[in-house]
């Protein structure tokens, strides 16, 4: 699969087949996280792989009852170990940003194996910490569901580049001084 196909073809999957993910594939998917960049190379991301039905049920209710989640064969609970981060980057955005980039690597790697995923960010952190025995210095950053997709989806609307870009000042859409020869 070429890179653009991987980027553009990944979708958030919320309907999964009852088919297990082979451990070897799961290991490769998780390993992709290790290559992510991180502030100060702190690599604060930690991953709890959950396959027990009763725990997935608990995670599903902690994720504000997003009922589709417990049909996914695997939940990856993405945590941040903040014990080192707090020393260097107290109250910065880095812990979350580092985990976010690792999550993207995981989801894209899963997609290359034909495995669907969904990033779930709406959850009751206290409930997940309690249910999975996560210690105090570790925060929950996201849950990723993983499994073989049982739905075909088209890409939800993307804003065009013109909406996203400014040149030299926020909101300035005139790029002529930057790219005088572009026409
Ligand atoms: C930070 C973050 C939080 C998200 N939280 C949820 C969530 O709680 N539940 C859900 O179903 N999807 C969630 N999503 C998935 C988005 O809804 C999805 O990425 C978006 O609609 C675009 O669709 P696509 O991923 O198929 O391109 C989240 C995505 C991100 C990046």
What order do the helices and strands come in, and which of them pair?
Blueprint (H helix, E strand, L loop, with lengths): L2 H7 L13 H9 L13 E6 L2 H10 L11 E8 H8 L4 H19 L3 E5 L4 H7 L6 E10 L13 H4 L19
Helix pairs in contact: 2-5, 3-6
The structure holds flavin mononucleotide (FMN).
Describe this structure in words.
This protein has a domain of 126 residues: NADH Oxidase, CATH 3.40.109.10. Helices cover 35% and strands 16% of the residues. The two termini are 33 Å apart. By secondary structure, the protein is of the alpha+beta class. Helix 2 packs across helix 5 and helix 3 packs antiparallel against helix 6. Strands 1-2-4-3 form a four-stranded antiparallel beta sheet, sandwiched between helices. It binds flavin mononucleotide. The site of flavin mononucleotide (FMN) has 10 residues, from strand 3.
* Share of helix, binned: 25-40%
Small molecules (ligands, ions, cofactors) in the structure: flavin mononucleotide
Shape: globular
* Rg estimate, integer Å: 19 Å
Number of strands: 4
- Mean pLDDT metric: 95
What would the keywords be for this entry?
183 residues, alpha+beta, NADH Oxidase, 4-stranded antiparallel β-sheet, binds flavin mononucleotide
Brief rundown of the structure:
The chain has 183 residues and is α+β, with helices and mostly antiparallel strands. The protein has helices at 3-9, 23-31, 53-62, 82-89, 94-112, 125-131, 161-164; strands spanning 45-50, 74-81, 116-120, 138-147.
């Amino acid at each position: 699969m070429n890179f653009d196909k991987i980027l553009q073809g990944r979708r958030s999957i919320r309907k999964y087949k009852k088919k297990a993910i082979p451990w070897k594939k799961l290991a490769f998917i998780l390993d992709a996280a290790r290559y992510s960049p991180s502030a100060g190379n702190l690599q604060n991301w930690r991953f709890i792989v959950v396959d027990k039905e009763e725990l997935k049920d608990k995670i599903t209710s902690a994720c504000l009852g997003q009922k589709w989640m417990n049909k996914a064969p695997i939940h990856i609970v993405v945590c941040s170990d903040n014990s080192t981060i707090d020393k260097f980057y107290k109250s910065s955005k880095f812990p979350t940003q580092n985990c976010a980039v690792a999550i993207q690597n995981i989801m894209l790697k899963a997609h290359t194996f034909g495995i669907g995923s969904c990033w779930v960010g709406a959850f009751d952190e206290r409930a997940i910490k309690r249910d999975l025995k996560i210690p105090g210095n570790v925060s929950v950053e996201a849950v990723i569901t993983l499994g073989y997709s049982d739905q075909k989806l088209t890409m939800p609307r993307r804003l065009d580049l013109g909406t996203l870009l400014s040149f030299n000042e926020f909101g300035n859409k005139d790029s002529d001084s930057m790219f005088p020869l572009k026409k």
